[in-house]
Amino acid sequence: MAANTKYQPAPQRDSLEESSYAQPPPSYQQDDHAALLGAPRSEDDNLPDDFKASVFKQDIHRRTFIRKVYAILTVQLFATAIASSISFYSAAYKSWIQNNPWMMYLGLFGAIGFMLLTFWKRKSYPTNLIFLSAFTAMEAYCISVVTSFYDSKIVIEALVFTLGIFVALTLFACQSNGYILVDTQLVMRHYHVEEEIAASISLYLDIINLFLAILRILNSQQNN
C-alpha cells in the first residue's frame, strides 16, 4: 500500500502572496543609530546642533532682557506722570516750584550727575537701581516744573500722543529710522543682556524729549 503511494508535491503559494514577501524585513539598526546620534541631516541643514542650542539660549536671554527694560521704563514713566500730576492737583506745590527756579536747575544738574553715576555703576546691583531712582526722581521733578506752566488739557493730549507714537514706533523699530527707533533697535539687538539700566535710560530720555516736543507744538497751536 505504501509502495503504491505516489509523492504529491506541496501546493504552490499564490503569486500575490509571493510578491508580498519578496522584500526582506526592514532593518532596525539604522533607527537605533538615529536614536542615539540624532536623525540624519537634510541637504540644506548645515548648522551644528550646539550652534542651534546657543542661538536658542541667546533668544531667551534677549527676550528676558527686553522685558526687564520695559518694566524699568514703565516704572520711570509712571513716577514722572505722578510728579507731573501733583502740580495740577496741588496749588501750593505748583506755586512753590514756579517761585523757586533754582530747584529746577538743581534737579537738572542732579539728573545729569545721577545719570552718569548710573552708567558708571550700571552692572553693580543694587547701586545701579539706587542711582537710577535718584535720576528718575530728579528728571520727574524737572518735567513737573515744565508741565506746571501749561494747561492740563494740553499736557494730557501730549501724553496720549507720545504714548501712541512710542508704541507705534516700537512695533516698527526694525524697519524704520529715527532716534527712538535707533535706541529701540539698540535695546533689541546691540545692548548686552546685563545692561538693562542703560537701555531703559536711553528709551526714557527719548520719550521725555518726544513728549516735550509735542507739548510745545500743541501749545503753539492753541496760542495761534
From TrEMBL:
It is found in: Membrane. It comes from the Eukaryota. Keywords: Membrane, Transmembrane, Transmembrane helix. GO terms for cellular component: membrane. The chain crosses the membrane at residues 69-90, 102-120, 129-150, 156-176. Residues 1-45 are annotated as: Disordered. InterPro entries: Bax_inhibitor_1-related (IPR006214). The keyword Transmembrane applies. The keyword Translocase does not apply. It is a multi-pass membrane protein. Its main location: membrane. Belongs to the BI1 family. This is Uncharacterized protein. It comes from Venturia inaequalis (Apple scab fungus).
